[in-house]
Amino acid sequence: MKATKENYFKDKLEDNASIIRPNEGETLELNTISITFKVSSEMSNDQLGVYEISLPPMCIGAKLHYHRFMDETFIVNRGILTIEVADKVYKAKPGTVVYVPRFTPHGFRNDTNEIVKLTLIFNPSQKREGFFRGLYETLNEVPIDPEKYLQLYNKYDSFPVDASNMIPIRE
Q1: Residue ranges in the chain assigned as alpha helix (H)
Q2: How far apart are CA 74 and CA 95, in angstroms?
Q3: In terms of C-beta distances under 8 Å and separation of at least 24 residues, what long-range contacts does 93-98 make, across chains too?
Q4: Long-range contacts of range 3-6, CB-CB < 8 Å, 24 or more positions apart?
Q5: What mean pLDDT do residues 42-47 have?
Q6: Within 10 Å of residue 89's Cβ, how many Cβ atoms?
Q7: CA angle in degrees (0–180, nearest 5) for 108-84-77
């Protein structure tokens, strides 16, 4: 049997691009938050997750938490996003990009009476779609089970800074 010689000097080009147009992608409605999967873990071989998020007025996206194995980037598209990073609070206007490397405590919310739209990017994605689907299930239960919420958080590389104050509900 003759072995074929591999060419180490020439790239094999392929067309594996994905084009996701406006209003395309799977959308989940988490109570009043809308999340649309644009680039999924499956599409990117778990390297990248890109999600469109719509936060209604006075809504919390996530309380202060951190990730061990992924970085998170926020791009504000519309409205003013309040983002906490460590012990600082920022008001991010449209066009603002906030890069949050792993082990950096962060949280985000809409403190205004207008809708906030943002693009959220995870690198690597760590199968983040499972996290969002689990949030859908967990946050629709009454009452919300904090132990189940924490289990979901930890499974998908999210760790609350204060486990006694991690549920994204305004009190």
Answers
A1: 128-139, 146-155
A2: 10
A3: 97/73, 98/73, 98/74
A4: none
A5: 94
A6: 12
A7: 50
